[in-house]
Amino acid sequence: MVWMFPGLTDIPDSCLYDDVTGVILAGGRGRRMGMVDKGLQLLKGKPMVEHVIDRLRPQVSTLMINANRNTEAYATFGYPVYADDPMDFSGPLAGFLTGLRHCKTLYLVTAPCDAPFLSRHLVEDLYRVLDGKRADLAVAVSRADEYCQIQPVFCLMKASLASHLENYLKNGGHKIDEWYASLNVATASFDDLHAFENVNTPDELKRLQDLPDNDTGR
Q1: What top-level class would CATH report for the domain 2-7+16-215?
Q2: Residue ranges for the binding site for Mg(2+)?
Q3: What digits encode the pLDDT tens for the residues 7-37?
């Protein structure tokens, strides 16, 4: 089922890529947050998902939200809301597939609903390496000094991967790294300290509340 409030989704002039759809992943249970819906928790006076929308929307031509509960609440932000099918809370790959099923552009970019400081250059940097390496998918890697960490739910993929992912899930697969290993994957490095900050516990939410506004990513 899709929930949508019409008239609120005009494409901004600053859209970077007409061929990119964005999906915000809000389909989890939020177990470590006490089963609350993380995307709807307030950070600096507004829901976390709204922070993600503000940063991702100018980078894409079309935006959707993947959510398995509180769909009416998510629909108030003015974008289509799609639940997983089946709606079994089976993880981010299910959200990827939901996004791919509803993607009408050549590429799909994914970001979680609890990453309020994601890079404003996410799509630009991911697309650069995907195109340069002729890859199927580009994934973000955070870099701090000599330490690098893959950020698997921040990725840009070809929409043509829909059937490949669907077959992987139908055959019992569920691990992102395992699915990535079956593809031609490129990585894009980001050195922004807070670009991939996310919220898994009430304490983490409080810590982000205390960050100064001028220290929350580029």
Answers
A1: alpha beta
A2: 114
A3: 334 444 445 578 999 999 997 765 555 567 8
Instruction: Pick out the residues of the known binding site for GTP.
Output: 25-27, 38, 66, 84, 114
Burial class (CB in 10 A: 0-12, 13-18, 19+), 90: middle
Annotated binding-site ranges: 25-27, 38, 66, 84, 114
- Domain ranges (residues) in the chain: 2-7+16-215
Mind giving me the DSSP string for the chain? -EE--TT--PPPTT-S-TTEEEEEEE-S--GGGTS--GGGSEETTEEHHHHHHHHHGGG-SEEEEEESS-HHHHHTTSS-EE--SS-S---HHHHHHHHHHT--SSEEEEEETT-TT--TTHHHHHHHHHHHHT-SEEEEEEEETTEEEEEEEEEEEEGGGHHHHHHHHHTT---HHHHHHTS-EEEEEE--TTTT----SHHHHHHHHTS-GGGS--
- pLDDT of 155-200, one tens digit each? 999 999 999 999 999 999 999 999 999 999 999 999 887 899 887 7
